[in-house]
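Fold tokens
===========
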Amino acid sequence: MANNQWGFYFDQSRCLGCKACVLACKNWNEERRGDAAVNVLNHANYMVANGQKDKESTYIDSSGGGNYSEYRKYYMKEDWRRVETYETGSTRLNSSDNTFDITVDRRYISLGCNHCDDPACVRACPVGAIHKDLDKGIVLPNPSICISCGRCKAACAWQAPQFFDDIGRYEADDPNRPKMTKCTFCKDRIDAGLKPACVAACWNRALEAGPIDRLKAEHPDAADTLRDFKTDESVGIKSRPNIIFKPKA
């Protein structure tokens, strides 16, 4: 663990599922995403030709309207940050009048990389293409030496390492074979004294970021886990994620 390990605090009671954090991540990291090397003008045709779900008409209409180069930022194939929705409900019959009382509970979880103390992705990579920053403990990729084997993705319980396309569709020596990308905690923003893009965009302040010891001190009642939050036990590797929670009541 780094001396100044950074992490996240997520207040589920404040998250409205608006996905402002998701869009901010996509916008800020446009040039870092895995498909950024695909020519902008040919991107739609490329994706259609390769059987992807997006179509040229998604971005470019026949009248010439629409800003394709801007719109494509928000269809970043990797979801370094995502918002998951969980919904439960119950029904109770009122015997007096045969009506029903229906209760529905909807909960959201905003997830990115948890920048674990002992990242499973780092251990899984056979070529050292992922490392843990010694200053703030940020887990960083090195796409230039990634061999696209997918072991990092398989090892992570939270799907932090990602590929913009199915690597199984490419030959091992194909120069277009996608390289792994992941959340970098917006290290460039942090180094400039700014908040990560996802945190800065959260208008209801459901997300915070900073040294994990400070976050724990500021939120002494925070929990180490959350209902519906996957544990690293699901992949059999103890990674010790750096995220704490305030559960929704």
